[in-house]
Design goal:
This protein folds into two domains: 80 residues, no CATH class; 100 residues, Sandwich (Immunoglobulin-like). It is mainly beta.
Length: 197
Amino acid sequence: MRLQVSHTLRLKASVDISHLQPESRILAHGMKDYGLIVVDNAANFFVSGASDSMDVNNQITLTWNNDDIQDEFRGLKNLKFSDFEAVDLTPRVTGFSTNRAMPGATITIFGKNFSGAAGSLAVYFGAVRASTVTYVDDRHIRVVIPRGVTGTVHVRVQAGRSSAIAATENVKGTVFGYGISSLTAADLFTVLFGRRF
């Protein structure tokens, strides 16, 4: 697999981190639980970050001990590329609370990876975007079927943005779970026309 920018890597659960320095161990736990995001796919594998706050207005005075983290044997430098696995956080649609309904009805979409975009979800019935999407949990979202769609269409869930973020936009925005669900037989939904089924 060729890693692309925005792909997620996670430190494998089997990697022993008990020998790491305390602050390196905390970061390694975060890498196991939450993963890392690839931001430069042209460079050799390395992990970088800042040990201090980049926001001068928040008055945070606690910082990481960089000597602890950079230690060759007991710091993060001890981790190897083979200690990580690629994680696909792209949303997946696996089914619906009902497979057919009229525009304006609320249905539940079943699947996975609905939480990665921190609530920045879009649902498309064919090419028509639903205006009301409610996140329930990582495996469920509720959506109102949009008007202007009839017949059997693919329902796709998009997490995050579909365009690049400009330098002037909010840099604290969504970073996890970008992508749109693949077309499958499980995401076919019939939007009915008329007053009755």
